[in-house]
């Protein structure tokens, strides 16, 4: 879902800059994923952008294997498009997980570009994994459970990365200097979906209540805890977080959700009754300074003046949003490349503080209340060097989107 949102924002930018361009978005989703369909249906319709939901396929395999099963449907959809006399196919822009579809683009005689929805540092890591696989005959999948495949990124015509020079100058310079055999790299970020960043946008009835509560809080006084569309906690971990929040004494807004079933890639769900999983009396004792919620309109919350810190799973969209709004982040990665992102923010860039950088959801490790409280106190510290650096990077992120701020790498 996070990939789709930022990809759609990239599509809008292309349409704004090229008035003869039209875009068709092919939607690949699991049958159980209703969020994607509702998201697509909520988008204002336009004659220059259309969505085609591809048929569901057997979900026995995930990752690249799941994408490969959609190749015949991609071919059929593109064939129907090219049959229209009023359209000329210009090329494919592919998600970072859809590199196998480059073969389809070749069949139609058009170039492929990759839209890499994470950062340049992680992109460099993926290139290194491919290098030791292709040239040193090392199997990187031996380091972690995997389906044994690597994306063939080098065959793309170019790679758009959702980052900007001031944030990842070292990684971008390294890619340009040391990898002459890779396609051109275009740092096009930060590309964000900011439609919910003010009260004037529809955040729904639950979201409106959240924003009203934030309106009553002092500036930069609230720590916001949110862990993405697949981030959730069982009772034991939730109680540790609750204890940390209560002991810290800081105002808080906590998006507490149920984790996906073990072994399944599904979205988190809301709890029906917070009393059942939180320490006895916690909600009553913290009623004056805290609010526990389910789903959260994250962008609108981060944009609010009351937010002073963000405890996050370190998804790349969340990192870019926290930087955009100048909110320092406390890192609690859970899956995918989030550990890498957390290391980048804390150790490499000094834009975040650590709660538990090596945490993974499937490890079943319980992060202690002491570690969580320490992270909350650090991220909420006023006039800290990290807060100052985040504010500076926030200004840089906005400058990067000006017409003279876009960078091209070859």
UniProtKB/TrEMBL annotation:
SUPFAM superfamilies for the chain: UDP-Glycosyltransferase/glycogen phosphorylase (SSF53756)
Coiled-coil residues: none
Alphabetical list of Pfam families matching this protein: UDPGT
UniProt keyword terms in alphabetical order: Glycosyltransferase, Transferase
EC annotation from Swiss-Prot or TrEMBL: 2.4.1.-
Presence of keyword Transferase: yes
Biological process annotations from GO: anthocyanin-containing compound biosynthetic process
GO MF entries: anthocyanidin 3-O-glucosyltransferase activity
CDD domains assigned: GT1_Gtf-like
Pathway info: Pigment biosynthesis; anthocyanin biosynthesis
Catalysis performed (reactions): an anthocyanidin + UDP-alpha-D-glucose + H(+) = an anthocyanidin 3-O-beta-D-glucoside + UDP
Enzyme class: transferase
Keyword Endoplasmic reticulum in record: no
Family, similarity comment: Belongs to the UDP-glycosyltransferase family.
Name of this chain's protein: Glycosyltransferase
Species for this entry: Hevea brasiliensis (Para rubber tree)
């Amino acid at each position: 879902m996070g990939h789709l949102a930022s990809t759609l924002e990239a599509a809008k930018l292309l349409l704004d800059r090229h008035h003869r361009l039209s875009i068709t978005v092919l939607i690949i989703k699991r049958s159980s994923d209703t969020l994607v369909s509702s998201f697509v249906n909520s988008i204002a319709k336009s004659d220059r952008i259309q969505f085609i939901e591809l048929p569901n396929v057997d979900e026995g395999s995930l990752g690249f294997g799941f994408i490969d099963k959609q190749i015949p449907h991609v071919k059929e959809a593109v064939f129907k498009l090219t049959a229209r006399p009023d359209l000329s196919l210009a090329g494919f822009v592919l998600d970072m997980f859809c590199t196998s579809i480059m073969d389809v683009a070749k069949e139609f005689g058009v170039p492929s570009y990759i839209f890499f929805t994470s950062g340049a540092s992680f992109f460099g890591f993926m290139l290194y994994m491919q290098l030791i696989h292709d040239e040193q005959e090392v199997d990187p999948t031996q380091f972690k459970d995997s389906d044994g495949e690597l994306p063939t990124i080098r065959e793309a015509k170019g790679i758009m990365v959702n980052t900007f020079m001031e944030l990842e100058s070292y990684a971008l310079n390294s890619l340009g200097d040391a990898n002459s055999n890779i396609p051109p790299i275009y740092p096009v970020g930060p590309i964000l979906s900011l439609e919910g960043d003010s009260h004037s946008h529809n955040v729904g009835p639950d979201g409106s209540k959240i924003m009203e509560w934030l309106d009553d809080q002092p500036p930069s006084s609230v720590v916001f805890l949110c862990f993405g569309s697949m981030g959730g906690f069982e009772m034991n971990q939730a109680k540790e977080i609750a204890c940390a929040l209560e002991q810290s004494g800081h105002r808080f807004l906590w998006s507490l959700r149920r984790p996906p079933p073990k072994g399944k890639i599904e979205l988190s769900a809301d709890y029906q009754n917070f009393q059942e999983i939180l320490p006895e009396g916690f909600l009553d004792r913290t009623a004056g300074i805290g609010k526990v919620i389910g789903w959260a309109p994250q962008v609108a919350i981060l944009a609010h003046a009351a937010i002073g810190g963000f405890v996050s799973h370190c998804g790349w969209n969340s990192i870019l949003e926290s930087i955009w709004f100048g909110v320092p982040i406390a890192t609690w990665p859970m899956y995918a490349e989030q550990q890498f992102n957390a290391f980048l923010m804390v150790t490499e860039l000094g834009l975040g503080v650590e709660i538990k950088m090596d945490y993974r959801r499937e490890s079943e490790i319980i992060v202690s209340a002491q570690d969580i409280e320490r992270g909350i106190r650090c991220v909420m510290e006023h006039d800290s060097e990290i807060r100052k650096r985040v504010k500076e990077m926030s200004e840089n992120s906005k400058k990067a989107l000006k017409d003279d701020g876009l960078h091209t790498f070859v």
